[in-house]
Write a structure and sequence with these properties.
The protein is mainly α and 450 residues long. Helix content is 58%, strand content 2%. The longest helix has 30 residues. The chain binds iron/sulfur cluster. One of its GO terms (cellular component) is primosome complex.
Length: 450
Amino acid sequence: MVSVAFINPLSDEGKMIVRELGEFDGVLSENDDLMSIVTESRSQEISDDSFIPRSYFDLALKRIEWYAKKKNDRNFDHKQYDFLFNPDINKFDVIAFFLLCQAIGVKYGPNSRESRVLVESQGKLIENRLGKLSKIERNVLVTNILNSLLSSAHIKWTFFEDLISSKKLKLHELILDSGEIILDKDDFLERFSHKIQGRKPEKMYEALIGDRIKELVMIKMVMQNTENYIRQVGERSNREIEPNPILLELADKISEVLLASVQTFGQGSGGYGGSVKASALNPKAFPPCVKKVMEGMKSGGRNDAIIMFLTPFISYARLYPAVFSENITKQISDVDPTLSIIQNEILPLIFGAAERCSPPLFEDQPQDKVNLNAKLGFGMHQNPELKNEGETTWYTPMSCEKVKIHLPSLCKPDETCKKIGNPLSYYNRKIWVVKKESKAESAVEEDIKD
Ligand code: SF4
């Protein structure tokens, strides 16, 4: 049977493993037991030494690297990380998890990109680990963990306040009765059997709750508890004089791993992906519809043009122009980790266009700034902040078809429009033409000077 700590490192079993380790001193040393578990993992790729973590410290970084590459690298090879799914690695994995939480808590705190990545990676690891178990084993494990996480059989929905307010869990995913969340089958049958007609209540339970919702709740609770633990570490470290240098070193390495994944596979400044580089915006390459909104909307459709149309276009054109060819879902901080491009380049452009509307958009409707942030993925808040990222989705740019239906006055197609289906594809195509033209112009100028 797989250990509970392999799924929930914050369990009592997990804490016991950490207590047994004692001091941090050995976490940098090569560990033969760890290396032999890794190399003996069934499908593990061992053709390169760099695939094999040699210490707790290495293993912690491999956990983050696995998630960053799985998310961003189309050539991701899961065989390089097979050891992460070998239950024999449990003891080492738990220590690596605590090292990550402490390093991130001490250096970056709970509202950082590093914290978000660790919390998300823990959720994905659990999903993938559960996926490798038999149905029975998976069910027993999830039930055990849920029972230990839930304080009683009757759970008021307010118990999940943190999860719901951070949008990790959505109320509509759950079945509620008299303010209580129903997860248990017997409880469901007792409350609803007499109300269900024409279908077997057991089947209804499986369809509405079953293993799927129980797993979802368990995973989200472990993720929330991970975030809470990082917060506690951060608060505690504020009271301590000197953080452990190993944790600070690990925190720096975590950032390096994330940065490397952005630079190699992502679209941040200096990075690239697919054939379209992320670079400073060139308004000359904007399609006619975007140019029109940039001039300021003088008549109807002002809000939708700025919030629904321009905001996704400008943000993706600047940060992740290859979104449609790569088809990898990203958050803004994956490509703009400090949000400096958002603050210094993207928002000023959008606010400028809003200002030129008649009447200026945010002057008479300041609440629309909240909607704008929501479209960038930062939830319903006044300003984009890392701590709120993920509460909403970063909207991808509208297709030409949708523009023609919802904002028909914007679409004044030119020749390039015949070859594309989305204003972003127009921009990606045109940017090459504009670059070629300006190179040719410079060459002519040089010739004239000569
Ligand atoms: S065809 Fe598409 S890119 Fe061209 S103006 Fe219309 S909406 Fe914009």
